[in-house]
Amino acid sequence: FGGKKLKGILERLNAGEVVVGDGGYVLQLERRGYVKAGHWTPEAAVEHPEAVRQLHREFLRAGANVLQTFTFYCSEDKLEISGNVTNITGAQINEAACDLAREVANEGDGLVAGGVSQTPCYLNSQNETEVKAIFKKQMDDFLKKDIDFFMAEFFSYVEEAVWAVEVLKTSGKPVGATLCISPEGDMSGVPPGECAVRLVKAGADIVGVNCHLDPLTCIRTVKLMKEGLEKAGLKAHLMIQPLGFHTPECNHSGYLSLPEFPFALEARAMTRWDVHKYAREAYNAGIRYIGGCCGFETYHIRAISEELAAERGFLPPASEKHGLWGAGLQMHTKPWVRARARREYWENLLPASGRPTCPSMAKPDDE
Amino acid sequence: FGGKKLKGILERLNAGEVVVGDGGYVLQLERRGYVKAGHWTPEAAVEHPEAVRQLHREFLRAGANVLQTFTFYCSEDKLEISGNVTNITGAQINEAACDLAREVANEGDGLVAGGVSQTPCYLNSQNETEVKAIFKKQMDDFLKKDIDFFMAEFFSYVEEAVWAVEVLKTSGKPVGATLCISPEGDMSGVPPGECAVRLVKAGADIVGVNCHLDPLTCIRTVKLMKEGLEKAGLKAHLMIQPLGFHTPECNHSGYLSLPEFPFALEARAMTRWDVHKYAREAYNAGIRYIGGCCGFETYHIRAISEELAAERGFLPPASEKHGLWGAGLQMHTKPWVRARARREYWENLLPASGRPTCPSMAKPDDE
Amino acid sequence: FGGKKLKGILERLNAGEVVVGDGGYVLQLERRGYVKAGHWTPEAAVEHPEAVRQLHREFLRAGANVLQTFTFYCSEDKLEISGNVTNITGAQINEAACDLAREVANEGDGLVAGGVSQTPCYLNSQNETEVKAIFKKQMDDFLKKDIDFFMAEFFSYVEEAVWAVEVLKTSGKPVGATLCISPEGDMSGVPPGECAVRLVKAGADIVGVNCHLDPLTCIRTVKLMKEGLEKAGLKAHLMIQPLGFHTPECNHSGYLSLPEFPFALEARAMTRWDVHKYAREAYNAGIRYIGGCCGFETYHIRAISEELAAERGFLPPASEKHGLWGAGLQMHTKPWVRARARREYWENLLPASGRPTCPSMAKPDDE
Amino acid sequence: FGGKKLKGILERLNAGEVVVGDGGYVLQLERRGYVKAGHWTPEAAVEHPEAVRQLHREFLRAGANVLQTFTFYCSEDKLEISGNVTNITGAQINEAACDLAREVANEGDGLVAGGVSQTPCYLNSQNETEVKAIFKKQMDDFLKKDIDFFMAEFFSYVEEAVWAVEVLKTSGKPVGATLCISPEGDMSGVPPGECAVRLVKAGADIVGVNCHLDPLTCIRTVKLMKEGLEKAGLKAHLMIQPLGFHTPECNHSGYLSLPEFPFALEARAMTRWDVHKYAREAYNAGIRYIGGCCGFETYHIRAISEELAAERGFLPPASEKHGLWGAGLQMHTKPWVRARARREYWENLLPASGRPTCPSMAKPDDE
Description:
The structure is a homotetramer. Chain A has a single domain (9-324), classed as Homocysteine-binding-like domain (TIM Barrel, Alpha-Beta Barrel). By secondary structure, chain A is an alpha/beta fold. In chain A, strand 4 (149-155), helix 10 and strand 5 (175-179) form a beta-alpha-beta unit. The longest helix of chain A has 17 residues, at 215-231. The first copy, chain A, is 42% helix and 10% strand. Chains A, B, C, D: It comes from Sphaeramia orbicularis (orbiculate cardinalfish).
């Protein structure tokens, strides 16, 4: 893979390639027993590296071009507040996480993105110096290790994201930035178009959204970002890493306001076929860095890779264990299951929930 | 753990202990990219041992007392028919799977169960000699390795299960046997009570059901088995490993007949709170070997362990990363999410599917 | 119509004719403002004869062969308890109701059935003499007027229904008897088959079920009645007047136990197409007296008449204002509505509730 | 009632009184067997006056202050196109309808509104002279009879409604005008605020919306009309007559685009409790003429009257047969039904559809 590795994230995007992102680590590792819900901190990178390594490896096999370091909420202030991690420092986690991502990325054609996310400090103080110092510290941890670019993600306020970008740009590495916002804009009401403009002006090479809302809503938000950039005469690559859940009734604050968050989201989970539609629509919207966030499991990432196989020119390793559009079912013992081995069947299926006493839509808590 | 390991499966059950089983390997490894749907064969034990090892480890951490070898459908006749595995023998898979289960079981208080399942040979020929030869061959693979007991599972016909038990009993090890049947009985119409009697008479130490139907339906079936045994004056331990999906509309042939099988079952997935109810009801029904089959993920097994923590006297390792009944949410940033950190909230929630254009019940294909 | 009127109810049924019954008066007149829910008494026959006359007339136009007198719960003991009627006697209501039914029946080919229903007296005393005296009094009211036959309906206990039949048979007129029971039997656990046998032995010429459960469930109950009669070597005509609501989750005590009863049943209402299926299945089950109870509106009765038009040899007057299977939509202004003017469209439609925050099934209060 | 009748519609509205409108005639009479779906013409006024009279009377008893003449689609061009009426002239229908409304209105405190609706001529020609001639002809029919004011309703294009108002104003009588539009505006894209301004400038005394969308959506539209009038410095009374169906997924063209229109709308029907919420919200929005259109049955109109009883100072006659908020259930035989005799129960109930294989939202045909 050595030759390919020469191609960095911007080379790929500049060349018009589709970059498949990875999926959601935090929720998936919660379900696997390694992350504590409510705290959501990434100490597993130190405590249970084999679990993190395995999930990285799954995403890589599923076709991801980028592995994000498992460093969500890994700023010192967040770790301290959460109280979940007492005997490990943020630096230890950050460094271990970089090593894990690098190790697995090198098993294939993978890039490593050092991930930085919103801080409690910003919410409490809005003090630019303090917040930037936190990002600087985390960046320095990453720079001790071999990462390819930075990703500032999960920001509710564009202002904090701009500060993150400004710090990360000092590294000389490419910087991506995604906000967890709705089409209405960030939490102070800055519309997506203006958010994108501010991020690009701050130095972001790639902008987009992640988390909080379902794929089609996130695509709408990224489209608004694109329009904003075009109006401002700016250029940047677009990326998207939405939820793997159906959230049609969500408002501005996203799925946190759903009564089902975070322990009863199962019925909202997307099928692989939902992901096919999402990947196609994201591609059609001009987005070229396409991944997932919370709720995106390995097979969802594979579905992105399979939907865009023609555009990318190849299928991922994990497709060896997956007949396209259900083709593997031709081997099933029951005739009626064999009859499902075709694209039209799965594209048109309206899956039942098996829960007749439950509603199909909830009332968000922020209404 | 050495001292504890002296206690075998029957010692534990005879002592009245709750034995927590593991979850479903095949569907989960399909989603992780290592098993091919339609074929459902376990070549990953040889091809990707790290992936199988990791899932074993998760189940162990979640409180499972037993790890089943990842040998589903691993009879030579099935492997040949499926055509998915050409360069690996069944013996290789069986032996590798035993080693993996043993390795991880030894990391904790785990027993290893060698798993044997229904064969195409039975469906085609119903020839006792041929079918028994297949079971004998697989048993011999296992006996080269260090397993604690045998588990004959996923049998639609009690006759075939009886043959499996008869073969496995020759090993001198304890034998469990579970059928994938409904309360109406096996596929030839033998009622659950009589199925249980036949299995116990054939030598099974543990009997019950697995797969095909949701937890509450499976409990009903095991209750019928229990009644049958009591009427016949027989004794055996009871076990259950149901689906992790809601299947209220299923008939005799179970979830294979649902239009959503196997690629759109997401909306039917049980929450951890559904599992709490299941574990309690199974316990109340007198079942002491309680696990899961397809759809049971790591956190579902942890939920069994947490519901029955008082009865077992301990919480599993993975509960370090899980506040009971949502307690971890007390740390959440949003006040309305913190308000969900209580048992009553999650016990009474009726989760929405986020899919208003989908029905809540399907029409099974076998109607 | 004079010539046709010579044919009484038994002549018609003996000749193999389909007899279309009328629909539900009480719920419909509640919605029109003339019956008080909770009391459910028929004083409107005296207070607002024009409203009762109009509903009779609609059912007749919709193809009903029988008009039941609007005398539900019109025994003196019930009227007294309900406290809703203070200045009118039961006799006055009964007589006014007979006149109204007769007047409208004479506008077409209609028979008048004098209706008698369960009494509070039975529930309180189970005293045969007292209960029979009440039926006798009501019967005498009817016999002052020109009615064609008697209908004992809405009995939860077959014992009380038998007493009613025994009294009504003394009139010399034909007697029908319907129970509001489930396939499990009456409220004392007498199975439907035995209920039917007892009623026929008491003298009922027509037996069946009415109210409390949806059409397909009621058909199952009538089938059990039929089997019971056949086993006993008895013969009787079968009739059915089910709810016009979907009640899939109901138990023994029927729709009274649904949380939606009686003021939020709208979403459960059957479409005319549901009625087509019902009418066909009832006919196929050998039932020849086919009508409806609570929830059956005028257009539902017309749907019975239209489904069985070939068997009866004619369409009812109200079909002048109804294109069969939506044919009238060929005139609609929107092209997509015109595209619905065909049978296949309406037969296969799965109608949405427009209520995404509501469940599709409730938990009955008698569980 | 003579004294009260001196108060015309404008006197009432000018005095700040709540005016309760009537419900939907066309759909209700279709279900009663007197109107042909697809044609939707009002020949029943001549053919079956007793049926029209009865529905007028029900609405009056339910508290309606206004009875609209049953003259929907009764322009000569529409009657000719529909082909449903061959031996009766439009003039005959219009005159008969006026007599029926007058006769019943005189039984209580009712006003008669002569109703005029959109014409095929407008859609085909947009010729102002021709369209106005049609309205003039219909107006002249009404002026031969004793009507209190005019109502131009069910207009998709404000231009045609303006022409209707201009014609009707020549009569010297008050004129109301309602459009069947969404918050997005009329079919040519004129926003609701501007629609209202144009109608008032044309001479309308009362403006608002009717039909096509559910109550809460219609309230939003009327609020936009109100804002438009306020911005323009104009004054007019506001009215609303929405659908009695839940249509959350509808777009601009309203419920005609729902797959359930017009023969499978049952599951969408509003309960009386839905109407309570609607009446309160409409009142709070400053609307004082509050009624219903298609799907509004007698008991829905009574619910408006009951919700606004304090504001109006009286309950309608039909409330004699209705315990407020379910109070009548205190008489019910089952204890669990008696427990429903309270406001909180009905206000919070989420009614189930009893249709687990059906979705809760449809895909409109105009998407």
